[in-house]
Design goal:
Helices cover 23% and strands 37% of the residues. It has 144 residues and is of the alpha+beta class. The radius of gyration is 17 Å and the shape is elongated.
Length: 144
């Protein structure tokens, strides 16, 4: 592991640098190809609306992966994330226009868990179109 953040220098309440992630229809097609998840709610506007969605929505796992980037970028090593879990609260709706959608992610060190393991709990907030899209979003991170 090569986490660049020292456990001894981190305090509860530390804000991680927030990030905003753009999502376009092209992004969803690329993710579908990489993940093998070709559910039409992620690319077919007509189908998405027929099943009651407002429009095409981003894959939940894509949204989750974008959010954790705030933590991995801060820690300096994706391998520093020992645990990560979320609840999906609202979909990220991706309109078919030049803008698409934005996922705005902020995070804060919520607790120091184990001095021996040098782990902290980081709580994340992910918002799109003014709505919280992930709930109970938490990661356990092993620091240097």
């Amino acid at each position: 592991m090569t986490a660049k953040i020292s456990y001894d220098e981190v305090e509860v309440g530390t804000d991680l640098p927030a990030q905003t992630f753009p999502v376009s229809r092209a992004t969803l097609v690329q993710y579908a190809g990489a993940s093998g998840d070709f559910n039409p709610i992620h690319w077919n506007e007509k189908f998405a609306k027929e099943v009651g969605l407002p429009d095409v929505i981003a894959h939940g796992m894509f949204t989750m992966a974008e959010a954790i980037r705030v933590v991995t970028d801060w820690a300096g090593d994706p391998g520093a994330v020992a645990e990560y879990g979320v609840r999906f609260t609202k979909p990220v709706v991706v309109p078919n226009d030049e803008t698409g959608a934005l996922i705005e992610v902020s995070a804060k060190v919520a607790a120091k868990l184990d001095d021996d393991d040098r782990t902290v709990r980081v709580d994340l907030t992910a918002i799109s179109a003014g709505q919280k899209v992930l709930g109970m979003s938490r990661a356990v991170v092993r620091l240097a």
